[in-house]
């Protein structure tokens, strides 16, 4: 199947980054439709990502950012694994409004395609699931993630396979390895939204800067 076909499987993949995507997500929250669709689609990204992240971390109180947290599906999985110090950030306020109580310590609005208002070396781990996909967040966001993480932090994220080369994620991952910003610990194909024939690369990187 060509990458274009993958791009047309889910309507959001045809949108342009920014306002169009934000409005689409805002609308997707009506009657909790996003969460219901994820159940119907057997969306496994959050669980797969958190399983990998957790296997490589022994301390449960590390400060984690769930970047592009949406309605909190990843936060819920992190909490189940015992993590206690998680912030969530997303640019759809309506997605943030659906996050259950007591999952995140802080929730804030963010645009991951811009320089983010977070100090260097703030976090000890980042999860980012479903956000590196068609018309959403671009590879430059990975530079910011490295910047806001402390040395030895783990960054665990998915990249929709259909955009991996087209958007230059292959080059960005290599650049960050070549300039000793991080080392890649795991990189493999995950099921992600297998029911829709959409898969993602699941990546675990350790910040070494
Ligand atoms: C497929 S959802 C994934 C949400 C959540 N991580 C999950 O796995 O359910 C993608 C999320 O990325 C957010 N998003 C898209 N573009 C963004 C941007 N430029 N900055 C921040 N968040 C963005 C959307 O609002 C949406 O909540």
What does this structure look like?
Helices cover 31% and strands 27% of the residues. It has one domain: Vaccinia Virus protein VP39 (Rossmann fold, 3-Layer(aba) Sandwich). Helix 4 (45-55) packs parallel to helix 5. It is α/β, with parallel strands linked by helices and 209 residues long. The protein is built from eight helices and seven strands; from the N terminus they run H-H-H-H-E-H-E-H-E-E-H-E-H-E-E. Bound molecules: S-adenosylmethionine. The site of S-adenosylmethionine has 22 residues, from helix 2, helix 4, helix 5 and strand 4. S-adenosylmethionine is lined by residues 21, 25, 45-46, 68-70, 73-74, 90-92, 95, 110-113, 129-131, 136-137.
How many structural domains does the protein architecture include? 1
SSE-based structural type: alpha/beta
Q: What is the CATH level 1 assignment?
A: Alpha Beta
Q: Proportion of β residues?
A: 25-35%
- Shape label: globular
Assign the CATH architecture. 3-Layer(aba) Sandwich
The order of strands across the largest sheet is 3-2-1-4-5-7-6
Report mean pLDDT, rounded to a whole number.
93
N-C termini distance:
38 Å
Helix count, per DSSP?
8
Q: Which fold name corresponds to the CATH topology? A: Rossmann fold
Total strand segments = 7
Bound molecules: S-adenosylmethionine
């Amino acid at each position: 199947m060509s990458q274009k076909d993958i791009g047309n499987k889910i309507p959001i993949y045809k949108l342009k980054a920014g306002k169009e995507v934000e409005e689409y997500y805002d609308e997707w929250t009506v009657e909790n439709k996003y969460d219901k669709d994820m159940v119907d689609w057997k969306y496994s990204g959050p669980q797969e990502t958190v399983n990998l992240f957790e296997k490589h971390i022994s301390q449960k109180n590390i400060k984690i950012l769930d970047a592009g947290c949406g309605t909190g599906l990843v936060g819920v999985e992190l909490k189940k694994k015992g993590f206690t110090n998680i912030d969530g950030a997303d640019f759809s306020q309506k997605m943030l409004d659906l996050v259950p109580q007591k999952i995140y310590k802080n929730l804030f609005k963010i645009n991951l395609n811009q320089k983010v208002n977070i100090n260097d070396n703030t976090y000890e781990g980042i999860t980012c699931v479903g956000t590196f996909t068609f018309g959403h967040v671009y590879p430059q966001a990975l530079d910011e993630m490295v910047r806001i993480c402390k040395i030895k932090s783990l960054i665990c994220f998915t990249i929709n396979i259909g955009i991996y080369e087209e958007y230059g994620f292959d080059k960005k991952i290599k650049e960050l390895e070549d300039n000793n910003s991080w080392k890649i610990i795991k990189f493999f194909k995950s099921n992600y939204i297998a029911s829709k024939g959409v898969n993602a690369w699941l990546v675990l990187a350790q910040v070494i800067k």
